[in-house]
């Protein structure tokens, strides 16, 4: 259950990273995906001449400054989701087929993923606030505000806040998986010790031999009884 939820949260982080970039990239930028009241190919645009050129350059500049956040967030969330899926598939085995090396690797991955998500969220919000504090962002905010577009401001957007929220949720899930993985290692070790004791115990070996020897006799008696019943019917 934790693995399925972790994969879902990773995908939500990926979606929020893309949505945050599209919402702040600007209407004249390719990164804005044409979302808004106008774009480069529209018939109507509130900006004209040098003002349009300035807005276009500022949109592109903001998009490039936020590129490390986008590429880093997409790469990290995809890698975490892929590795989680691998451990989910490989670890779906009965307890007697689980290997300690695999469980140890899964525990290490869960711990690193939890710590990595906390660091990644901190770096993401740090870069976002740095971009919002630049003069280019403030100048673009003033240009958009003149035409009544107040959404292009220099504050943390809802998409960026969602990235941070889902990132912290993913970190909590991976820490919970780390605890569950430690408990699984203890369970597998106890099971292996029990199996080893059962194999080396003389009573169990004698009991196993008697059971093996009784099975042919029981099967032979059943066969003879069936033959007698068949002969009676004939």
UniProtKB/TrEMBL annotation:
Domain of life: Eukaryota
Signal sequence, start to end: 1-22
Chain intervals with Basic and acidic residues compositional bias: 205-223
Keywords, in A-Z order: Membrane, Signal, Transmembrane, Transmembrane helix
Keyword hit for Acyltransferase: no
Topological type in the membrane: Multi-pass membrane protein
Keyword Signal: yes
Region span, Disordered: 199-223
Main location (coarse class): membrane
A single cellular component GO annotation: membrane
Transmembrane domains' residue ranges: 12-35, 70-90, 102-125, 161-185
Protein's cellular compartments: Membrane
UniProt domain MARVEL: residue ranges: 1-186
Protein name per UniProt: MARVEL domain-containing protein
Organism name: Bambusicola thoracicus
Lineage of the organism: Eukaryota, Metazoa, Chordata, Craniata, Vertebrata
